[in-house]
Write a structure and sequence with these properties.
4-stranded mixed beta sheet; globular; SAM-dependent_MTases_sf; Methyltransferase FkbM domain-containing protein; EGF_Rcpt_Signaling_Reg; 4 helices; 4-stranded antiparallel beta sheet; about 20% helix
Length: about 140
């Protein structure tokens, strides 16, 4: 997929447009909008799984996901049965689907919500792979 990324806010850039490859995102440019300059870049995105397989790594000890609003969409693309991610933190305060949707998705993929990290500019959830899941399913 291609996205248009607005990098005019320093470290707090954001995706402003998504395309599935059939539409054309704007080319890299600098535009004026509401009296300020916006730096827009067309970026090609690849699934996390594809990148990890390309480098020969499907086991990850810690993964931090903070992309200013597309976290849920990204998590839905991960083939959890093919990757072994032990611990991850996910920023959720910009996610339209909300923290509950992320937690439900993670629980469906055998992760436990371990805690939350709250900062002035960020709300994150910590998930840990439920290594006892296989044992627990026999007792339910």
């Amino acid at each position: 997929m291609q996205v248009t990324f607005n990098a005019s806010v320093g470290l707090l850039g954001a995706i402003v447009n998504e395309t599935d490859g059939h539409q054309h995102a704007p080319v890299n440019s600098t535009e004026k909008k509401n009296g300020r300059t916006e730096n827009l870049y067309k970026i090609q995105c690849f699934p996390l799984y594809s990148m990890l397989v390309a480098v020969g790594r499907t086991q990850v000890d810690y993964f931090s996901l903070d992309v200013e609003g597309s976290e849920y969409k990204i998590l839905r693309t991960i083939p959890w049965t093919k990757l072994d991610i032990t611990t991850l933190t996910v920023e959720w305060n910009h996610v339209p689907e909300g923290e509950k949707a992320i937690t439900r998705l993670m629980e469906e993929n055998q992760y436990i919500k371990f805690g939350q990290i709250s900062m002035y500019h960020s709300q994150e959830v910590v998930y840990v792979k439920d290594f006892l899941y296989d044992f627990r399913q026999y007792y339910d």
